[in-house]
Amino acid sequence: MSEVKLTKGELKRQRDALGQYQRYLPTLQLKKQQLQMEISQQLTLLEQTRGAEVTKRHSIEAWAGLLAEPGADIRQWLIPKEIVTSARNIAGVDIPVFQNVEFTAVVYDLFLYPLWVDAAVEALKELVSLRQEINVIERGIEILRQELRITTQRVNLFEKMKIPEAQEAIRLIRIYLGDQMTNAVGRSKIAKRKIEALVLQEVAV
Description:
By secondary structure, the chain is mainly alpha-helical. The protein is built from 2 helices and 2 strands, in the order αββα. A hairpin with a 2-residue loop joins strand 1 (80-90) and strand 2 (93-103).
């Protein structure tokens, strides 16, 4: 703690600062709780989406060998044109929310491509979309964790440093001012007795 001025002005400043810290701390604590809850929910969503991605991948593996057939190169239709997201505000921080993936429209000659191409393209688009959703969720979790780190640091700063320091400064100033007041009263009594003694001497003369 830095050196504290033992004055009434400093006492007021420390009291005002303590009041601000004590008003602001509950807001920070609430924000910390909200972030922790949202991270937990997002981790659950991430686990569910990863499970869906694994299930879809396994279902595709059953017929993936067909993709090796001549004239069955459908990769050009699986490249995302745009990852559409929205934003959601959690305790003052925006995180991305996955909406969908937009792909280039599939246009091909029905006589040149196998009959199963339509179903394959749709299934693989779903797989690509799930992977992109996972990326968006992971990005949101990282944003929330970073905000949680900052908020936790601020909570600790207020709880462990700012509030105790202000309380200790107020205690020291009160003790000093109390001592000064006691000394002043003592000096006043001594001075009063001296004056009374002088008056008595003058009267005696």
